[in-house]
């Protein structure tokens, strides 16, 4: 008897069986009580042949069971099938909320600076004139000191006009090196219009260490601007004036709408103004008791709403301060 | 500041393309916000088509009463016939003519045409047609001596490019055309013309002037010049055009000269009608208490003893540096003029301008600190122009000054620039650059020019001069770090998880104003000068803002209005600064249990305990309101919003402090658990939490979990009673509990509840 052939014929018969009945018939033929295999197993007398035949029996039984499962599954699928079922009907409504775009941008900024090894600070918004202006070396005639520009609570107390007081808090808080970014709300007495709101968010970076240079400031801001706007952006610096930095510069990032060719968004200059920056003024170092000959530093401040508007193509600031879910749910 | 480029060219040879000039100025000097073009297009020889014309003959158009038919000599030999609608001229007049083919500022191109049958071979121009002014009353009449055929552009600023320069507060020297020319010369290595103006000879005597300065702190210097036989009248066209290109309105020749010199040099001037001065005296002093002055704008100003005044022998006549007085103003009738070229103290002017909310071109310059050495230069330039343009005689001069500040030397190490900028600049190059900016440089010292003396006082200020000229060449590098410490604090990480949790369960984050119209806390901090009543008080709670946000969304017809905000509140502290805290608040559609469910889930997700006890809250329903960890939860009071709403407000740091972090793992236990439900009937006033607590206490550690299931109050439960059902899970850490063990635990619970609450087991 060619048992190899027997086995392959049996396997083929299982595979060929298209219904349960056919499979039962094939099973009876190959593995039934009267089948040649069973008969041979009953009559076998030597151990080796017995083991071989038994192994064939086991394999065939397994193949039968597997095929039986397949046919059962096919039967079930047949009963379940429903051509009228509509997969395009929407699924269960799962409530989906979202973080405000300002929060999303805040986190992007935080993550970028964490990657650069900076600490994140959230400082107080109601500030003393001393921390908001004096220690930052604002001249007595600086226009920001005017109650027309700044919200006063009394002669000595203001709503911070930028996140810069954090520079003083951080330098007073611990000795250098300092690498920190402060994020939060600031206030200016701007009338409300399409691009102004008296409350806005800023991020303020400060690095104080030995041997920091203006080139380091340029490199750091290039990195941050590319993180915020894309790797293809260019950054340039324009000389400017701020009381607490010297030299002072305004960073511009190349316009993403026109790629620097000039368009309405960038007022046809190819550049977008991003805020202020500069090397920490020696007066500020002296105000916190640091020796400007030993330490140098750079600082920068950028408006978060502006970043958000540019990233998301929002012409106006209003949607960022509106509770309208039609706006918020886009994010 | 608006800088007409032709004016700039008076002082420096600007021949580079303007966009390039604008870029370089922006990077190294002051931002150029744009370049405007005014006047006729300056391309394809267009300017050559505008000429001086002489009207040879003028008469009525044969077939149109309103038109003149003119024969005009434009230097071509033959005359041209031009039809014109204006009648303010006749034969002999010098006029401005545009020839056929000329393009006007509005883009219109002239053609020869026939008007009512007569050929019109050009156009006689009115001021506004070529943007030299706004006058359209008649055609523009030119000085008779101008030769016919002369290109008009040789005589008038037919075309002008205007740089819009936005300089910074530390650079009052850039609020002048000459100051900008100085920077252009330094940037490009060009020659700068000497300051404009030369004193003419004094004619008709040397009158001494009675100039008295009582307050040298407020007025370090006062130069006065007297002019007689002044003919007040309109300024010539070139001057009016320059002023209007620079953004100022022409008035009369003398006043225009004061403004022109201010724009040219940066030193504001003032002119008084000398005849109106009591005892012909000028006194510079502080105001007396209660003193008043009617300024040029007609306002009666109440003065303060800090205000600096110009007075005569009897009364105040001008608010120094800010605005003149009405009574001594130059009028058509003025013949004697006293010119004031003074220097005023920045802070004094700033304070008065600030207090009176009165900002002028003058105050804007003074408050930034004008070079005290500039006054005589400005006086000279103005003198020359007044004599020339108003036919005046200069008859008197006075100069009162205190010791003007010495120019101080600054120790300067060129290597310090390299250290701070991060790029090498040789000391020769640095010195050359500083010299171009008119710094004196010798050895290890530099001295800033007087117009930069306020701004450049320290070595680092000199470094900035180098940095701004090399800005584009500075490379992009990173700091070399020796210490690393960048990470979020525990509270920052916790706040992020709160944000994620709430947005994850369907809440939309909103940002609302920290300033509100009113707050529940009467002590809440109030702004001295809010911009509006709605943004006046620093809020002590976020929820009212969220109620408004929800209301707004409901009005807009938005659905599923579940909102949250994380922001600061400002709690009065009794001290000078409020206590600021970061709160998280939410508002949602639904009743008390919705809000409580959100807070319970938050507590479970962020691993803090949140027990609840009834506590009233101003915004919540009187009994559906509870205090919990870090704040309050409740159903919104039905008077606040239509429909059923609920909310919560919690202090984030308190939640973070209560959170178990990191979570400590508890073994699950190998022995099987037994589940049982029970229901007890108790008085309606008994709290579910008390029942659960009593059950836990009675059963001990083998009660692994006791969970509230329902609160049932309908029949057959008698009125005033309720049936509370809960599910119990018993599990021992030591052995498998039998049914008898479970029954025993359950009985202990039931009898404890019977004793404590007169509970009756419901069967
Ligand atoms: Zn663009």
Features:
heterodimer; A: 331 residues; alpha+beta; BirA Bifunctional Protein, domain 2; 2 domains; 8-stranded mixed sheet; 3-stranded antiparallel sheet; 11 helices; 11 strands; B: 763 residues; Phenylalanyl-tRNA Synthetase, Chain B, domain 1; OB fold (Dihydrolipoamide Acetyltransferase, E2P); Phenylalanyl-tRNA Synthetase, Chain B, domain 3; 6 domains; 6-stranded antiparallel sheet; 38 strands; 27% strand; binds zinc ion
Mean pLDDT of chain A: 94
Spatial separation of the terminal alpha carbons of chain A: 75 Å
Q: What ranges of chain A have pLDDT less than 50 throughout 5 or more consecutive residues? A: none
**What's the CATH superfamily of the largest domain in chain B, by name?**
Phenylalanyl-trna Synthetase, Chain B, domain 3
**Biggest sheet of chain A, in brief?**
8 strands, mixed
Our estimate of the beta-strand percent of chain A is 15-25%
Name given to the CATH architecture of the largest domain in chain B: 3-Layer(bba) Sandwich
Proportion in helices of chain A = 40-55%
User: What amount of the residues of chain B lies in strands?
Assistant: 25-35%
Model regions low in confidence, pLDDT < 50 over at least 5 residues of chain B? none
* Name of the level-1 CATH class of the largest domain in chain A: Alpha Beta
Examine the coordinates and then state which fold CATH places here, giving the name of the CATH topology of the largest domain in chain B.
Phenylalanyl-tRNA Synthetase, Chain B, domain 3
- Chemical compounds bound to the protein: zinc ion
How many structural units, i.e. domains of chain A? Answer: 2
Give the domain tally of chain B: 6
Query: How many beta-strand runs of chain A?
Result: 11
- The CATH topology of the largest domain in chain A is BirA Bifunctional Protein, domain 2
The rounded Rg of chain A comes to 38 Å
CATH uppermost class of the largest domain in chain B: Alpha Beta
| Quantity of strands of chain B, as a count | 38
Largest interface: A-B, 92 and 98 residues
């Amino acid at each position: 008897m060619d048992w190899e052939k027997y086995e392959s014929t049996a396997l083929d018969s299982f595979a060929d069986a298209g219904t349960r009945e056919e499979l039962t018939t094939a099973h009876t033929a190959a593995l039934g009580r009267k089948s040649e295999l069973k008969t041979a197993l009953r009559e076998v007398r030597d151990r080796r042949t017995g083991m071989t035949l038994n192994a064939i029996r086991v394999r065939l039984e397994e193949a039968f069971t597997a095929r039986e499962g397949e046919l059962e599954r096919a039967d079930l699928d047949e009963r379940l099938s429903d051509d009228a079922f509509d997969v395009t009907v929407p699924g269960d409504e799962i409530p989906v909320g979202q973080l405000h775009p300002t929060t999303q941008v805040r986190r992007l900024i935080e993550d970028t600076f964490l990657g650069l090894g900076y600490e994140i600070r959230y400082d107080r918004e109601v500030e003393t004139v001393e921390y908001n202006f004096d220690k930052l070396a604002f001249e007595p005639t600086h226009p920001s000191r005017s109650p027309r520009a700044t919200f006063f609570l009394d002669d000595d107390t203001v709503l911070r006009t930028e996140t810069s007081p954090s520079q003083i808090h951080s330098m007073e808080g611990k000795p250098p090196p300092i690498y920190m970014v402060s994020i939060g709300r600031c206030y200016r007495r701007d009338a409300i219009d399409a691009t102004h709101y008296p409350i806005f968010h800023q991020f303020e970076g400060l690095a104080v260490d030995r041997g920091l240079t203006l080139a380091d400031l340029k490199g750091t801001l290039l990195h941050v601007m590319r993180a915020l706007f894309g790797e293809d952006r260019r950054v340039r610096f324009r000389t400017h004036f701020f009381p607490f930095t010297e030299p002072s510069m305004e960073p511009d990032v190349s316009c993403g709408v026109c790629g620097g060719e000039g368009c309405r968004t960038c007022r046809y200059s190819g550049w977008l103004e991003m805020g202020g920056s500069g090397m920490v003024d020696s007066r500020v170092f002296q105000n916190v008791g640091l020796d400007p000959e030993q330490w140098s530093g750079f600082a920068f401040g950028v408006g978060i709403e502006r970043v958000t508007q540019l990233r998301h193509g929002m012409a106006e600031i209003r949607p960022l301060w509106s509770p309208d879910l039609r706006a918020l749910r886009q994010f | 500041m608006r800088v007409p480029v032709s004016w700039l060219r008076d002082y420096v040879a600007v021949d580079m393309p303007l966009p390039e000039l604008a870029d370089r100025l922006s990077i190294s000097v002051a931002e150029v916000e744009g370049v405007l073009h005014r006047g006729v297009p300056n391309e394809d020889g267009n300017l050559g088509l505008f000429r001086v014309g002489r009207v040879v003959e003028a008469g009525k158009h044969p077939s149109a009463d309103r038109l003149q038919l003119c024969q005009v000599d434009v230097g071509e030999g033959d005359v041209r016939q031009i039809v014109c609608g204006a009648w303010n001229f006749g034969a002999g007049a010098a006029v401005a003519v545009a020839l056929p083919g000329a393009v006007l500022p509005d883009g219109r191109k002239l053609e020869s045409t026939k008007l009512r049958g007569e050929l019109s071979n050009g156009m006689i121009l009115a001021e506004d047609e070529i943007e030299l002014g706004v006058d359209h009353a008649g055609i523009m009449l030119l000085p008779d001596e101008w030769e016919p055929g002369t290109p008009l552009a040789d005589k008038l600023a037919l075309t002008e490019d205007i740089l819009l320069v936005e300089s910074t507060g530390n650079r009052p020297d850039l609020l002048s055309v000459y100051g900008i020319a100085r920077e252009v010369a330094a940037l490009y290595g060009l020659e700068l013309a000497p300051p404009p103006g030369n004193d003419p000879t004094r004619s008709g005597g040397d009158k001494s002037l009675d100039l008295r300065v009582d307050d040298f702190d407020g007025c370090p210097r006062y130069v006065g010049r007297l002019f007689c036989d002044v003919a007040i009248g309109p300024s010539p066209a070139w001057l009016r055009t320059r002023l209007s290109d620079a953004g100022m309105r022409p008035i009369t020749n003398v006043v225009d000269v004061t403004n022109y010199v201010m724009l040219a040099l940066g030193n504001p001037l003032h002119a008084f009608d000398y005849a109106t001065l009591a005892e012909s005296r000028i006194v510079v002093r502080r105001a007396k208490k209660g003193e008043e002055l009617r300024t040029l704008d007609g306002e009666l100003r109440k003065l303060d003893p800090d205000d600096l005044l110009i007075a005569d022998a009897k009364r105040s006549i001008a608010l120094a540096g800010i605005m003149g007085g009405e009574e001594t103003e130059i009028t058509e009738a003025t013949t004697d003029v006293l010119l004031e070229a003074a220097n005023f103290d920045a802070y004094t002017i700033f304070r008065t301008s600030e207090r009176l909310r009165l900002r002028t071109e003058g105050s804007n310059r003074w408050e930034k600190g004008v070079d005290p050495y500039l006054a005589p230069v400005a006086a000279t330039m103005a003198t020359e122009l007044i004599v020339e343009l108003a036919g005046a005689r200069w008859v008197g001069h006075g100069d009162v000054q205190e010791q003007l500040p010495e120019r101080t030397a600054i120790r300067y190490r060129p290597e310090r620039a390299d250290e701070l900028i991060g790029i090498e600049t040789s000391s020769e190059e640095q010195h050359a650059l500083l010299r171009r900016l008119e710094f004196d440089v010798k050895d290890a010292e530099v001295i800033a020019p007087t117009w930069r003396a306020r701004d450049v006082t320290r070595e680092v200020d000199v470094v900035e001069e180098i940095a701004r000229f090399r800005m584009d060449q500075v490379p992009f590098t990173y700091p070399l770090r020796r210490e690393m410490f960048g990470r979020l604090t525990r509270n920052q990480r916790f706040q992020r998880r709160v944000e994620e949790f709430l947005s994850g369960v369907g809440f939309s984050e909103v940002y609302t104003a920290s300033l509100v119209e009113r707050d529940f806390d009467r002590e809440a901090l109030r702004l001295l000068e809010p911009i509006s009543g709605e943004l006046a008080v620093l809020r002590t709670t976020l929820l009212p803002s969220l109620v408004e946000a929800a209301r707004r969304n409901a009005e807009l017809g938005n659905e599923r209005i579940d909102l949250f905000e994380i922001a600061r509140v400002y709690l009065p502290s009794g001290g000078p600064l409020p206590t600021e805290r970061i709160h998280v608040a939410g508002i949602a559609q639904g009743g008390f249990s919705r809000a409580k469910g959100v807070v319970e889930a938050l507590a479970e997700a962020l691993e803090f305990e949140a027990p609840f006890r009834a506590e009233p809250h101003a915004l919540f329903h009187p009994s559906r309101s509870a205090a919990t960890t870090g704040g309050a939860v409740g159903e919104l009071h039905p008077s606040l919003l239509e429909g059923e709403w609920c909310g919560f407000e919690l202090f984030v740091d308190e939640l973070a402090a209560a959170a178990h972090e990191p979570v400590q793992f508890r073994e699950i236990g190998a022995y099987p658990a037994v589940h049982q439900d029970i229901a007890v009937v108790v008085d309606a006033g008994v709290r579910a939490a008390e029942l659960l607590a009593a059950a836990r206490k009675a059963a001990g550690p083998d009660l692994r979990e006791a969970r509230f299931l329902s609160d049932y109050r309908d029949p057959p439960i008698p009125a005033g009673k309720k049936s509370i059902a809960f599910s119990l899970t018993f599990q021992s850490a030591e052995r498998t509990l039998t049914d008898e063990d479970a029954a025993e635990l359950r009985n202990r619970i039931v009898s404890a509840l019977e004793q404590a609450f007169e509970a009756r087991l419901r069967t």
